[in-house]
Structure formats: structure tokens, C-alpha cells
Amino acid sequence: MINPKDLLEFLKERRSIRRFKDTPIPDEEIEMILEAGQWTPSASNKQPWEFIVIKNKEIINKLASIAIYGRFISKAPIVIAIVGKIDENPSWYVQDTSLVSLNMMLMAWALGIGTCWIGSIDREKAKEILGVAGYNFLLTVLPMGYISGKIPKPTPRKDMAKIKRIIE
Ligand SMILES: Cc1cc2nc3c(=O)[nH]c(=O)nc-3n(C[C@H](O)[C@H](O)[C@H](O)COP(=O)(O)O)c2cc1C
Fold it and tell me: The whole model's pTM is what?
């Protein structure tokens, strides 16, 4: 079990990272990130997902070219695409794969690997590039690489008083 205060600190320290070193990520570390995805909770434990690890620079560049706020993907040594298999749980694939994404982001951070959820990608084009069948859902692509430069300052959070309501 992890110390709760350490966990909270860890969650607060995570940042979206948009600048990466060229340094390759060892396969064992990629495997740990994938395992973090594999162990994500899912509705009725259907695990309606598939992960694609992209190491091919040409494909990574193609993905960068179709992500308006994700051009920096091109600098990442690897990208992991998270695919939702709609037919395996049509009601919950979005929630399930979103949790996968967060689990992977946190595992990466624990390894000193930076990543950032890319929402601004043309999902249909990305599916074509990656050979993902039309009836599947491409949640996001996560560029991953060791952090280049300084770790960004924390992004602000709304005050707890504004987001909290207690019913007693
Ligand atoms: C659903 C979602 C979509 C996002 N899409 C993008 C994106 O396309 N490009 C980008 O640079 N950051 C993207 N982000 C990262 C957010 O901008 C970032 O998480 C937010 O500003 C908080 O900063 P932090 O992650 O460093 O705490 C996305 C985050 C989420 C959760």
C-alpha cells in the first residue's frame, strides 16, 4: 500500500508534458505503462480496450500533423494509442478507456516519463493511419518521452470551496 500523503503529493506533482528528449524508452518501462492500463477498473470488468504502441517515426509524424494542439507529438520517441472496443461494452467504453488513459499517465509519471492527453486529434484520420477498424473508438494518443527542460509550473485549480458541497 502506498502512503496516502505520498499519493496525494504524487497526484499533485504530475504535469502534462509537451517537450521530450530523444532518449528511447526501454521496453520494460513501456510494458509497465501497458500493465497499468491492463489493470484499470472497467464496467462489469469487460476491459473493452486495445493499446497500440507506436515507435515508427513516420507514423508519429503523421499523427502530429493531424493534431491541432498536439504538433509536439512529433518529438516523442513513442506514442500509445488507446482504442475502445465499442461492441465489448457499448455503454461504458468511453469511461473505461478514459480511466486507462489516466492510469497510464500516472505510471509514466512515476517512471519519470512525460505525457499529455491529446484531445485535439482528428480521430477518424488517426484510426486510418493506425489501421483501427471503423467501428472502434480511438480515445486518444499519448505521446511519451523523458522530460526535456524544466517541469512546467502547476496549472491552477479551482478553489475547493467552489467545487465542494457537503450533504450532512
Ligand atoms: C480530455 C483532455 C484533452 C486534452 N487535450 C489536449 C490537447 O489536445 N493538447 C494539449 O496540449 N493538451 C491537452 N490536454 C492537457 C490539458 O491541457 C491539461 O491536462 C490541463 O491543462 C491541466 O494541466 P496538467 O495536466 O499539467 O495538470 C488535454 C487533457 C484532457 C484531460
Answer: 0.97
